[in-house]
């Protein structure tokens, strides 16, 4: 690899403020804000809106669509299908 053309990878804390969850990983992102991690070292922190701790797919709180109600509402609005078609 050529030297000097790749971004610097460093340890960064990603924090999901909605869930109160944070994790330390390597990233090329940089931030002006810092946070002290569990090991006592200060790392840059990046706030994210959603993570695996708050995403409905991972938490199991995903909503199931009411498909039967949607079909009934469609049939009421536009009429039931006729047998001749």
Automatic annotation (TrEMBL):
<dbReference type="Pfam" id="PF01197">
    <property type="entry name" value="Ribosomal_L31"/>
</dbReference>
<comment type="subunit">
    <text>Part of the 50S ribosomal subunit.</text>
</comment>
<dbReference type="InterPro" id="IPR042105">
    <property type="entry name" value="Ribosomal_bL31_sf"/>
</dbReference>
<comment type="similarity">
    <text>Belongs to the bacterial ribosomal protein bL31 family. Type B subfamily.</text>
</comment>
<dbReference type="InterPro" id="IPR002150">
    <property type="entry name" value="Ribosomal_bL31"/>
</dbReference>
<keyword id="KW-0689">Ribosomal protein</keyword>
<keyword id="KW-0687">Ribonucleoprotein</keyword>
<protein>
    <recommendedName>
        <fullName>Large ribosomal subunit protein bL31B</fullName>
    </recommendedName>
</protein>
<dbReference type="InterPro" id="IPR027493">
    <property type="entry name" value="Ribosomal_bL31_B"/>
</dbReference>
<dbReference type="GO" id="GO:0005840">
    <property type="term" value="C:ribosome"/>
</dbReference>
<dbReference type="InterPro" id="IPR034704">
    <property type="entry name" value="Ribosomal_bL28/bL31-like_sf"/>
</dbReference>
